[in-house]
Every structure is written in C-alpha cells, then in structure tokens.
C-alpha cells in the first residue's frame, strides 16, 4: 500500500469514526432537547427534575466509557459522574454547597486527567504562560467582584472560602486544558468557566433574575461537557494512533 492509498484509507477511517461518534452521542442530544422541552421557570423541585437534568451528563459518560473503556472511569467519566451528582444537588437550593463540592471534585478529576499520558503534553512557551496568567487574573478578579455579594449571603462563612476554592479549581482546569493541545478540551473548559460565571451572577443575585439567563447557563454547560468528552475521546484515539506508528 503506497502513501496515497494509506492517506485515503486514514481519511476514510476518520470519517467512519466521526459518524460512529455522532451516532453514539445521539442519546445525549435527545436528552438535552428533552430537558429544554420540559423545563419551565416554575418547574418543581423533584426527583424527576433531577433525573431529567442529569440524564444528558450520564448518557455522555456512557458514550465516553463505550469509546475509551474502563480507563476513563478515573478520568473524564469520573468527572461526568460527579457533575451529574452536582446537577441533582443544585435542583434543591439547600443543597447548593453539596452541588458545588461535587462540581469541584469534577474539575479536579478533569485537571488530573489533562495531566495524564493520554494527552500529548505541549511544552510551555511564553505565549501559553501568558494565557495561564490571563486565566488566573480573570478568576481572581471575578472572585474579588463576587466577594461583597458572598458576604451578604446567609451562609457567608462557608461560601466565601468555598467559592474561592471552587474558582481556583475551575481556573486550574482551564489552564491545564491549554497544555493538552486538544482544541475541543480547551474550548470545553473555557465554556465551562463561562457557564459558571453566568450561574454565579444569577445565584448570588449580582444581576436581576431573567428567564434567558437559565438557558444561557445550561446551553453553555451542556456544550462544555460535550466538548470535554469529545476531546477525551480524540486524545485517546490520537494516543493509540501514535502507539501504532511507533510500533510499525
């Protein structure tokens, strides 16, 4: 098989994989559509609501598990499972801190995954170090901006340090996503930060409650998780291709 035939074969393989990946993600897309179809501003706090909200993330975890196998349980799949737990907790306002803790664990798992050997490590340049700095400046500035509103909250003694730790962890995830070299992973992590900023502005009453704000939070949230999941699948695929190339 000459170089041109090999290249054509590789292209066909990539197209077939893209179709198979899209097919495996169909349950996720359908469950997201169901969530937005059923959600209303006056939706009751119930087990059903928690199930409908977390179902897309659980289906996304199943898709990643089917592609990457058991190794992903301690990686992105684990992060998705903790995210689904956070989704359930956030249905009830009194479980907000529990939900935030679950998402903090998810961000920590994602960060550790981005450091794993399945992701190609790109050497830091002055440009990437500048991006790290920018992200931490954004995270720190947002915390400083939120601080007066956190102090006014009923559980301020817990919220002030907890939100600080949470912002640090999600910012760390964003910076580590840069070094993976995976566009989907980076875009997913940054979109997650945007989603959480929008949620914090709403939860801590920085902005007036508006119906579109919930849609913005959830659209960016589901998109972020989708991109992180796809990035993980691509990372494992690229890692496998590199291993085959080295053996050949």
From TrEMBL:
Q: Where in the cell is it found?
A: Membrane
Q: Per its record, how is this protein called by name? A: lysoplasmalogenase
Arranged from A to Z, the UniProt key words for this protein are:
Membrane, Transmembrane, Transmembrane helix
Q: Does the keyword Lipoprotein apply?
A: no
Q: Which reaction does it catalyse?
A: a 1-O-(1Z-alkenyl)-sn-glycero-3-phosphocholine + H2O = a 2,3-saturated aldehyde + sn-glycerol 3-phosphocholine; a 1-O-(1Z-alkenyl)-sn-glycero-3-phosphoethanolamine + H2O = a 2,3-saturated aldehyde + sn-glycero-3-phosphoethanolamine
Main localization of the protein? membrane
Q: Which residues cross the membrane?
A: 20-39, 45-65, 72-93, 99-117, 129-146, 158-178, 185-204, 216-236
Family of this protein? Belongs to the TMEM86 family.
InterPro entries (alphabetical): TMEM86B-like (IPR012506)
Stated EC number for the protein is 3.3.2.2
Q: Which PANTHER family match?
A: GH04784P, TRANSMEMBRANE PROTEIN 86B
Q: How does it sit in the membrane?
A: Multi-pass membrane protein
GO MF terms, alphabetically ordered: alkenylglycerophosphocholine hydrolase activity
Task: Work out whether the entry's keyword set contains Signal.
Answer: no
Q: Which GO terms describe its cellular component?
A: membrane
């Amino acid at each position: 098989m000459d170089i041109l035939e090999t290249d054509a074969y590789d292209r066909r393989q990539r197209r077939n994989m893209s179709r198979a990946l899209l097919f495996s993600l169909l349950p996720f897309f359908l469950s997201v559509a169901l969530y937005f179809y059923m959600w209303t501003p006056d939706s009751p706090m119930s087990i059903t609501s928690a199930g409908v909200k977390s179902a897309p993330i659980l289906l996304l975890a199943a898709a990643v598990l089917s592609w990457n196998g058991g190794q992903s349980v301690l990686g992105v799949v684990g992060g998705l499972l903790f995210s689904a737990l956070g989704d359930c907790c956030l249905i009830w306002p009194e479980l907000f801190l529990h939900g935030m803790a679950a998402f903090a664990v998810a961000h920590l798992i994602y960060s550790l995954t981005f450091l794993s050997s399945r992701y190609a490590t790109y050497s830091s340049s002055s440009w990437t170090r500048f991006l790290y700095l920018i992200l931490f400046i954004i995270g720190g500035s947002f915390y400083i901006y939120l601080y007066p509103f956190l102090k006014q909250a009923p559980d301020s003694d817990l919220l002030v340090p907890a939100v600080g730790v949470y912002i640090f962890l999600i910012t760390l995830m964003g910076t580590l996503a840069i070094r993976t070299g995976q566009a989907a992973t980076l875009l997913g992590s940054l979109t997650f930060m945007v989603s959480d900023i929008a949620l914090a502005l709403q939860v801590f009453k920085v902005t007036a409650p508006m119906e579109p704000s919930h849609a913005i939070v959830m659209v960016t949230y589901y998109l972020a998780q989708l991109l992180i999941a796809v990035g993980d699948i691509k990372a494992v695929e690229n890692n496998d291709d590199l291993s085959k190339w080295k053996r050949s």
